[in-house]
Amino acid sequence: MTIKDSQAISRSNMQQMLLSGVENVFVVDIDAINKNRFNFKIYQELSKYFEITVMSLPLRVEDLMDSYISGASEIVIPGRISQKLLEEYMRTSESLVLLYQDPYVAQAYYLLGGRTFVSDRQLDFNNARIYSFSKILKGPGYITLTDFPAEELGSTLR
After folding, report:
1. What is the pLDDT of residue 49?
2. pTM of the complete model
3. What pLDDT score does 22 carry?
4. Whole-angstrom Cα distance, residue 45 to residue 115?
5. 148 Cβ contact list (under 8 Å, min separation 6)
6. Of 154, 131, 152, 135, which is closest to residue 3 (Cα–Cα)?
7. Cα(85)–Cα(132) distance, rounded to whole angstroms?
8. What is the reported pLDDT for 21?
C-alpha cells in the first residue's frame, strides 16, 4: 500500500484484504519520505485491522516514536544514517527494518541486532528477513512486496 498526498492507495480495498485473510500490510509513506510529512492518522486507521510495517524513513527519533504510537508494528529506517543515530534507533526499538543502501551501515545494523531489511538485491546476513522489491529474488527469508513504488522513490532507494 502507498500513501501519497494523504491518500492510501492500493490495488485491493480494505474489505477485500480483510476477506482474503491479509494480516500484514507493508505501507510506503511517500509524503513522509519526500516531504517529511507523516500520515499518522492513516497509520492509526490501518493498524485497527492489520499489522503494519511503515516505510517512512524517519530522520528523528521523535518521528520514529510517533509512528509506533500511531500503530506501526515495524518502521523502515534509512540505510544512510550516522552510527550515532543508528544506535539511538536501535536503543529505542527492536522492531526496525533497514533500507539497504550503504553496506557499512547495514553491517553496523546487523551487529547491533537488526535482522530485517528492505532491498532489491541478494543479502548475505544469517537469519535475516528481507522485504524484497525485486521481481526475481525469492527464497527463504525473502518476502516479496507487490505494487512497490520503486520508480516513484527513484534515488531514495539507491
Report:
1. 93
2. 0.95
3. 87
4. 27
5. 26, 28, 133
6. 152
7. 25
8. 85
Q: What type of residue sits at position 87?
A: E
Using only C-alpha atoms, what is the Rg of the chain?
Answer: 15
Spell out the SS3 assignment of the chain. CEEECCEEECCCCHHHHHHCCCCEEEEEEHHHHHHCCCCHHHHHHHHCCCEEEEECCCCCHHHHHHHHHCCEEEEEECCCCCHHHHHHHHHHCCCEEEECCCHHHHHHHHHCCCCEEEECCCCCCCCCEEEECCCCCCCCCEEECCCCCHHHHHHHHC
Collect the ranges in the chain with pLDDT lower than 50: none
What is the rounded CA–CA span in Å between residue 158 and residue 155?
A: 5
Task: Please name every residue paired with 29 in a beta bridge, in sequence order, or none if there are none.
Answer: 3
Q: How many CB atoms lie within 10 A of CB 40?
A: 19
Instruction: With both helix axes pointing from N to C terminus, report the angle between 83-92 and 61-69 in degrees, rounded to the nearest 10.
Output: 30
